[in-house]
Amino acid sequence: MDWVVTIVGAIAIVLLVKAYVVNPYRIPSSSMEPTLHCSQPAVGCETKSVGPVDLSDRVLANRFLYKIRDPRRGEIIVFETPPAARLKCGAGGTFVKRLIGLPGDTVEVKLRQGDGYVYINGKPLKEPYIEKARRGAVGSFGPMKVKPANYFMMGDNRSQSCDSRLWGTVPRANLIGKVFATYWPPKRISLH
Q1: What's the CA gap between 120 and 153, in Å, rounded?
Q2: SS3 letters across 5-29
Q3: What is the pLDDT of residues 92-116, one digit of tens each?
Q4: Predicted local distance difference test score (pLDDT) of residue 105
């Protein structure tokens, strides 16, 4: 009986931590390349699977953080897709994107020499995480004012990202958590 109580208790603790504190997620598409890698055969993925082993990045998201503070621009966030995202992207469930626009911000993408650059409230956004090659094949967007309690999300691989430019903002209630670490594959272990 002692073993049964111990095993049931351990399972309950793991399930509680997963539901309320930290949960793992896989990167299924190339929208966050090269920051977070997905695995081929998906279009634009930089990592190849090795036999049956999928080497796409696996990340951990802090599910508790946004209960004690507001999300911040530049954070990588896991969220439930709004209904419009399911229609525009042909995919639903959870997405992993970078938070670009906060409630009340005016977001715009302007073209400079054929590359797309984000402007927040009329000022260029510094985005050291975006490679120049990832800015190409992007059209202009906006301006769009972010509604209260909503967030504007974009992938780091702008030309391959189905994001808020196509389906609008994400309500605060849809945010699951902040990505804080990559734990798989071993050579990609890092904190975010």
Answers
A1: 13
A2: HHHHHHHHHHHHHHHHCEEEEECCC
A3: 789 999 999 999 999 999 998 888 9
A4: 98
